[in-house]
Amino acid sequence: MADTPTPSGIALHGDAVAGQDGVLPGAALELLAELHRRFDPARQALLAARAARQARFDAGELPDFRADTRNIRDADWRVAPIPAALQDRRVEITGPVDRKMIINALNSDAKVFMADFEDSSSPTWAAMVEGQVNLRDAVAGTISFTSDTGKQYALREDARTVLIVRPRGWHLPEKHLTVDGASISGSLFDLALFAFHNAASLHAKDRGPYFYLPKLQAMEEAALWDEVMAFLEVRLGLPIGTMKATVLIETLPAVFEMDEILHALRGRIVGLNCGRWDYIFSYIKTFRRHADRVLPERSQIGMTVPFLKHYSELLIKTCHRRGAHAMGGMAAQIPIANDADANAAAMERVRNDKLREVKNGHDGTWVAHPGLIPIAQGVFDEYMPTPNQHSTLREDVVADRDTLIAPSTGSITRSGFINNVDVCVRYLAAWLDGLGCVPIHHLMEDAATAEIGRAQLWQWLHVGGQVLDDGAPIDFVLFDDVLATVAHRLPESGLPGQTRIDEAAALLGELTHADTLADFLTLPAYERL
Ligand SMILES: CC(=O)SCCNC(=O)CCNC(=O)[C@H](O)C(C)(C)COP(=O)(O)OP(=O)(O)OC[C@H]1O[C@@H](n2cnc3c(N)ncnc32)[C@H](O)[C@@H]1OP(=O)(O)O
Ligand SMILES: O=CC(=O)O
Ligand SMILES: [Mg+2]
């Protein structure tokens, strides 16, 4: 690793990648350093608060609404008006920040493209820097790409899809840039660099900049985002409130602070989103020591399971009361080539998922693949003739603490157990190889979906007393045997990440045997990138 000398206190680590000098000029580095010095102590304190809260959950406490913020929940207030470009968000496509993906997504008929530095990105230095280059070119309208087969890609002149960027979550460091010897936060790096390069141009077009904020756990974390954005607005000469945010409610603690999160960002927030996959992961993580709330295998945890149904409906009620969008989430099915029946069944599942969302009152939804846009759009066009449905107040929804954390019934089958191991190893291998989103067994898998399998394996093995539906105990003999079989079989499979299978299996073994559930799979994995 070569270190590149830069302005005082700032160091770049690792081999320089194409486009790095353009993305990280001195002025951008100075801005990042200033952000780090100003805001990193607060970020560290918030991460420590997460750990302290989890320790209380581990000791038996249950999450609940906060007593000290009752006045925020009870008072009548609304979020700032939503800009024209974000009024209608019925279909949002998401995807990692590689060049072809960005062009295809912005050329799609989706209302929004969420360019993702988070769940669907493996944060190699090259991917993070190239992602900034690609987005800068996309905003400038000059992005183009030629594939290995010679296919040319460019933005359509009439492309109208609105860009929203999702930076990494507060927990993730960017180790290739240190300030005074400490890694900068991935969140600050992604958001600030994107704003530095594109804010003026987007603002001039009434297009933002707009952001999706992931994995928040508390209103204080939202308040920190608000401070960061206000600071950047001043530095970049934008009116306060120009940067708009949509917050993913994808952790269990956050569902108890939805009003508070909207309130903390009320000058700039336009909606909340049901990030269902991380939410399921967070439910498992929060209750990792609670044997009475162990979830069944992943295939049995659909959005109609009580704790998920109540969460999504309360999100709609909360948002609409405050004048904010209540965005739905991602169905994991993707088109299946070469098997018409399987494809029809997968598309029907997506359609039913979107139908449930629009009928419940969501204002829009996510798709993982362009082939799903017509399905989602068809359903929302049919049931939502207006740009959004904020007038659906859902005052009928009663979601108290107990319903939001309700235990689930179901089973753990042998194939469900094996599937968790198999998907985790395949996904981790791809991630270590630089791919953050891959199709596995015809489903979209990203960091959030993989976390479910990883956390379940740990919990099933550590909470005690778990058995498969055939009566076999879930123990380390079973796990080690399945892991060895999977790791032995996979190298034959011709998958992305094939060369990292052994490393992925070793990491899963280590994480699953550890006495404590690691907070995020991506933290130990990042050390190996
Ligand atoms: C839990 C969460 O956080 S959800 C949000 C994070 N997850 C995502 O964003 C999912 C993004 N989706 C993807 O990465 C991909 O769709 C995958 C990995 C699931 C499947 O990818 P592939 O197997 O390559 O799909 P497939 O071969 O069918 O792609 C067909 C075409 O659609 C394009 N495409 C696929 N997905 C997307 C997308 N999300 N956005 C734009 N274009 C896309 C491909 O680039 C390809 O283009 P081409 O014909 O010009 O070559
Ligand atoms: O980010 C989305 C999720 O479901 O997790
Ligand atoms: Mg997520």
End-to-end separation: 13 Å
- Major β-sheet strand ordering: 7-4-3-14-13-12-11-10
Number of helices: 19
Query: What's the number of domains?
Result: 2
* Bound ligands: acetyl coenzyme *A, ligand LL5AMS7Z, magnesium ion
Which radius of gyration do the C-alpha atoms yield? 22 Å
How many beta strands in the DSSP annotation?
Answer: 16
Q: Helical residue percent?
A: 40-55%
In the CATH scheme, what's the topology name of the largest domain?
Answer: TIM Barrel
Structure description:
Helices cover 47% and strands 13% of the residues. It is an alpha/beta fold. It folds into two domains: 26-403, Alpha-Beta Barrel (TIM Barrel), CATH 3.20.20.360; 411-527, Malate Synthase G, Chain: A, Domain 4, CATH 1.20.1220.12. α12 packs parallel to α13 (373-383). It is globular and about 65 Å long. The mean pLDDT is 96. The structure holds acetyl coenzyme *A, ligand LL5AMS7Z and magnesium ion. Magnesium ion (MG) binds next to α10.
Summarize the structure.
This is malate synthase. Residues 14-66 form the Malate synthase N-terminal domain. This protein is of the alpha/beta class and 529 residues long.
Supply the key terms.
binds acetyl coenzyme *A, about 525 residues, binds the ligand O=CC(=O)O, Malate Synthase G, Chain: A, Domain 4, 2 domains, four-stranded antiparallel beta sheet, single chain, alpha/beta, TIM Barrel, binds magnesium ion, 16 strands
